[in-house]
Amino acid sequence: MTGIELLVGGWFASPIIRRVLEKAQKYLGANYELQKNTHEVLETLTRTLVLCQATVEEAEKRMINNSNLTTWLKMLKEAIYDADDVLDDMDANYIKEKTQGKNKVREFASSSLFGLKDIFSPDPSHRNLKRVLDKMVKISDEIPKFVDLVRMNENYGPCNYELSDPRETISLPSEEVGLYGRQEELDLILEIILGPGSGSSKKGGQHYNTYSGLFVIPIVGMGGVGKTALAQAVYNNPEVQQTFETKIWISVSYNLDVLGVMRKINQSFGGYVRVDVNTLEDISRSISSTIAGVRFLVVLDDLFEKIEFKWDIIYTTLSHGLPGSVVLITTQNQAFANRVATLCPIALNPLEWDIFWELFTPTPRTLFTP
């Protein structure tokens, strides 16, 4: 083994990163009339690529023998090729528009790459660029741990230190941050899963719990609006604790595929599948047999695109519990939330200013705590 690139099937990271970086820099350098949103995304992508390139070039000088480093490089490889494809698509779209006479370029624009002057923010090109950027940022967030792994491997040999998702959550709410401005949504969810009269409002109404299937309740909204905090409030509600025989919280790490999520669900339910079993069939059957005759609550926090495409597998498996079982999802994808909800998604909008200000208002405890 002569370098870290050999751990990903002979893939040489630095050259492809440099190529994609050059493409992004060319777009920025020659296309000063890019719309603001697209220009900002390209700038951030460029900075992230520079960071990844510097990290990989340093790592390629070392002798590496660690599966966790391989995993990180594979994720980086996928994201880099994705970025390369998106930039090529942007160039192809420009050529198509130019051919159809919808755009005009100046005479000095001899190259379509340098002649791209208009990337429309609502179009698929911009959305794909933003998607690639989000993926690259998540991967670059792991760089400090990646560097630590390189050093640990160099000093102490192979180790089992695992890369983790910096956004991983737990079911316990923060003692320092309460649930602000979401009581109405909390009461609605409790009424859906427990029946009327639950929650602080104690309102009567439709007894949703007569529903004969599996409840799927998505909490949907942009990042930072309190989706996880609301899910934690539901999960830790005393009535919920008494009603559901089994409750599990799954933080859907971005480096998990549907198989990884199903394994987490199975382990949390106490199901048993040999570690060498890697088929959805076996894991699905284990979960189904474990939850038969059980009313459960499953929280899937921060469900993302890679899992959403195979949601039906998760839903079918979890449908074998008792009627009234609940899957509570947090997601930023409104279309996905609409598709999977058994009643209606719980949409969270940004807090009103007066409620938002409460987050920064000292409480009596903080005022008198020495």
Automatic annotation (TrEMBL):
Gene Ontology molecular function: any one: ADP binding
A single GO BP: defense response
Pfam families, alphabetized: NB-ARC (PF00931), Rx_N (PF18052)
Superkingdom to which the source organism belongs: Eukaryota
Keywords carried by this UniProt record: Leucine-rich repeat, Nucleotide-binding, Plant defense, Repeat
Domain NB-ARC: 216-361
Domain Disease resistance N-terminal residues, every copy: 17-104
Membership in a protein family: Belongs to the disease resistance NB-LRR family.
Protein name: Disease resistance protein RGA2
Species this protein is from: Rhynchospora pubera
